[in-house]
Design a protein that fits this description.
The chain has 15 helices and 13 strands. By secondary structure, the protein is of the alpha/beta class. A seven-stranded parallel beta sheet has the order 6-5-4-7-8-9-13, with helices on both faces.
Length: 403
């Protein structure tokens, strides 16, 4: 009775919803209908969780043994309307006003568990290394392509000139959109946009445009270089261009922002800097590269080695208070560290990268330490086959962390 009363405003829709669910129960021997809600309120989950589900479906992973159709709802909040429109073109997405009555009817009628997708749709880890092998599932139509190219020209980017997306996390977005919630537990992931200026200007001097992304940011990027565009603050930002830029960039530089899931699903190369927690570093794609913040131990008076980071669990901490309680201070990458790994990505993509003598040995040493078989708190695997690279200059300059 309590469940029914809480849905009383939607009660007129409950009777037709019950009829729909009854029909679905009756046809189950021939066709299984399952539901799930896409995490549309957070663009990272909206992008990557959905893409991983789609890749696994095409690979025959986590599928029922009979004919089936999967149907989806969205949250009340849509993080990006263009992304929502694109998912609607390839998935069975029901109107949001049907979600509550359908879920309630499914709850009231026996056999509900068979019609709810397994929790894997909640996952954003490419543990089967599918993204490297599956083509993207979202594409722009001709009108969208024309609109996107026009948007690039309005930003001053000529046709055919490469550009890089720069995404740096701060707390402004969540504090603005959900001001009544305390988001400080994420603060360990934040970094200073000004520390990325050196890398951005290096790329700009090499002929790239660098586009600083973001819907709401704490401060503008302080650079006068004509090829650096602070799209997050210059008034040109839109849901559509967010997706178009992320899909068409030469590569993406991410300071651990959920938005990097968008270039991820469009198969763009990504270089992560200031990545924490280190145990969650995406390593499933050969087009990925990363470096981590420094884990400085206040008790030891020095940076923790990689073995120490993983041995004491700090490599998997997901809350600011966890680091504080262990006396571990997260130290941001220097502008030079960021520049070096970004240059490595750019040169690798152009096949001009010149490795130094010990680089491959340092790579092997790092990935031998990295816990490739790690699991999250719910027991799910975090990694599949390790295909990514760790920044070469970072390992050279911090070789003591490998001891």
């Amino acid at each position: 009775m309590k469940v029914t009363l809480c849905y009383f405003p939607k009660f007129p829709l409950l009777i037709p919803a019950i009829l729909v669910v009854l029909v679905i129960r009756l046809i189950r021997p021939w066709l299984l209908v399952r539901w799930s809600t896409l995490q549309s309120s957070r663009i990272g989950h909206f992008s990557l969780n959905t893409e991983v589900y789609y890749c696994e479906r095409e690979a025959g992973i986590n599928l029922p043994s009979q004919r089936y159709v999967d149907c989806f709802f969205m949250d009340q909040v849509i993080a990006n309307k263009q992304l929502a429109n694109m998912w609607k073109r390839v998935l069975h997405i029901w109107p949001n006003w049907t979600r509550s009555p359908i879920y309630l009817a499914n709850w009231l009628i026996p056999g509900k568990a068979n019609h709810i997708l397994p929790d894997r749709i909640e996952g954003d880890r490419d543990i089967h290394n599918l993204v490297d092998h599956c083509p993207p599932h979202l594409n722009f139509n001709s009108k969208e392509t024309d609109r996107g190219e026009a948007g690039l020209h309005m930003m001053g980017i000529p046709t055919g000139v490469p550009f890089v997306c720069l995404m740096v996390r701060d707390s402004a977005y969540l504090d603005t959109h959900s001001p009544n919630q305390d988001w400080s537990y994420h603060n360990y992931r934040d970094s200073d946009i000004q520390n990325y200026v050196l890398a951005a200007e290096e790329l700009a001097n090499r002929g790239y445009f660098v586009i600083r992304m973001g819907a709401v940011v704490r401060e503008s990027m302080k650079s006068c270089h004509p090829r650096i565009i602070d799209y997050a603050t210059n008034g040109m930002r839109s849901d559509f261009m967010d997706i178009y830029l992320s899909a068409k960039c030469e590569f993406c530089i991410s300071g651990v922002a959920g938005f990097d899931a968008v270039p991820f699903i469009f198969r763009r190369p990504i270089v992560w800097v200031n990545f924490v927690p280190l145990g969650y570093l995406p390593a499933s794609g050969a087009q990925f590269m990363g470096i981590t913040k420094h884990y400085y131990s206040l008790h030891k008076g020095r940076n923790l080695t990689f073995k120490e980071i993983f041995a004491n669990g700090t490599g998997f901490y997901l809350r600011t208070s966890d680091y504080e309680s262990k006396g571990v201070q997260m130290i941001e990458n220097t502008p030079e560290e960021i520049r070096d790994v970004v240059v490595e990505m750019a040169e690798r993509l152009k096949n001009t990268w010149q490795a130094q003598e010990d680089d491959e040995a340092l790579q092997r040493k790092f990935w031998d330490i990295f816990p490739s078989n790690a699991r999250s708190s719910d027991g799910s695997l975090l990694h599949g086959k390790i295909l990514s690279r760790f920044g070469a200059a970072f390992l050279r300059e911090n070789s003591e962390l490998l001891e």
